[in-house]
Design brief:
Blueprint: E1 10-17, E2 24-28, E3 33-38, H1 44-55, E4 57-61, H2 67-78, H3 95-106, E5 113-114, H4 115-121, H5 128-136, E6 149-150, H6 163-188
Parallel strand pairs: 1-4, 5-6
Antiparallel strand pairs: 1-2, 2-3
Helix pairs in contact: 4-5
Length: 189
């Protein structure tokens, strides 16, 4: 007779990702990155609880095949050599939140839009506050670039990672966007 073997609990692998703006907490499933947040973020504990509940899994330090790729791509991003990320993501959120995050991913590197413009792109112009709330629940900083959404008057608005980080990310992209565009055009000829 075979021995009873209870099903092993699902695991969400976690690690620390190093960036020039400080260490980031990262979590991934076997399908992609599900959290990339600055450690000082107020809602990090809430994010971890949300993914554990969603995947019925435990978040623990472990190796994941996507971590090396993510670290390499973030290093290149901070060096001003990368504008797009290829590392797979696994989004955890409502369909409205996911729609809002997909709009964020369509904002070109080095550019910004307002919360009002994001709501209009979602074909829901009255949803400005809901868009702001959805952006605040984004669990994958930098790659899903909620730092590129600012208030209509040009003020930065909120940022879960802290306004200093939002400002630094926008400045980095602003400083490198013309170099990257020039490089990409020179490859086309």
């Amino acid at each position: 007779m075979r021995e009873y073997n209870p099903i092993k609990k699902n695991i969400i692998a976690t690690t620390v990702i190093k960036t020039p703006l400080g260490d980031m907490f990262c979590a991934a499933t076997n399908k992609g990155i599900c959290i990339l947040s600055f450690f000082k973020q107020k809602n990090l504990e809430d994010q971890i609880q949300r993914v554990q509940k969603f995947f019925k899994a435990e978040a623990i330090p472990a190796h994941n095949k996507y971590f090396d790729c993510l670290q390499k791509e973030l290093d290149e991003y901070f060096e001003g050599k990368r504008i797009d990320f290829t590392v797979p993501l696994q989004l955890v959120g409502t369909s409205f939140q996911q729609s809002a995050w997909k709009i964020l991913m369509s904002i070109p590197y080095g550019e910004t839009i307002s919360y009002k413009e994001e709501a209009a792109l979602l074909k829901n112009p009255k949803a400005v506050r809901a868009v702001g709330s959805a952006n605040g629940k984004n669990m994958i900083s930098i790659i899903i670039p909620c730092h590129r959404v600012i208030q209509t008057g040009g003020k930065l608005g909120g940022y879960a990672g802290g306004l200093d980080k939002k400002e630094a990310l926008l400045e980095l992209e602003n400083n490198h966007s013309s170099d990257i565009i020039r490089k990409n055009h020179s490859h086309e000829h």
